[in-house]
Amino acid sequence: SFKIPFFWDENYYIPTAHHIFDSNFSSMIPPLQVDRGNFPFYGFYMALWWKIVGKSLAVSHVAMLPLLLGIAWEYYCLAKKFLSKKWIPLALILLVIEPTFITQTILMGHDLFLIYFIYLLDHSFIL
């Protein structure tokens, strides 16, 4: 069940996705050895993609695309709020070349969930 290669902290979070996938979504509470102490949104999201499209590393990478597009849209809305129209393209380029952002997109990091959903929870205070 752990034959898909994952890197870095994904090895910490992805066993929950394997558990949910292997149990065919009948067990949302992971066993103690893979329990991370919070609701497994990331694991559920990955397992759902695997169930719909197939369980592979490529699918896991593609699963991050909706989050990345959402983050780019949120960033665009934020830049539109605080920057003049001529600076928005530069702001978007800076987002794309920012090293931390690039790293998280390559690693399929669960941090993308945090970036995306924290903005959604907090956007009413900003926009």
**What is the number of helical segments per DSSP (H or I, 4+ residues)?**
7
What is the N-to-C order of secondary-structure elements (H for helix, E for strand)? HHHHHHH
**Approximate strand percentage:** under 5%
Rounded Rg? 17 Å
The backbone outline, from C-alpha atoms, is elongated
- SS elements, strand count: 0
Distance between the termini: 44 Å
Mean pLDDT: 80
The helix/strand class is mainly alpha
Low-confidence stretches: none
Instruction: Tell me about the largest β-sheet.
Output: none
Please give a handful of descriptors for the protein shown.
127 residues, mainly alpha, 7 helices
How would you characterize this protein structure?
The protein has 127 residues and is mostly helical. Helices cover 67% and strands 0% of the residues. The chain is built from seven helices and no strands.
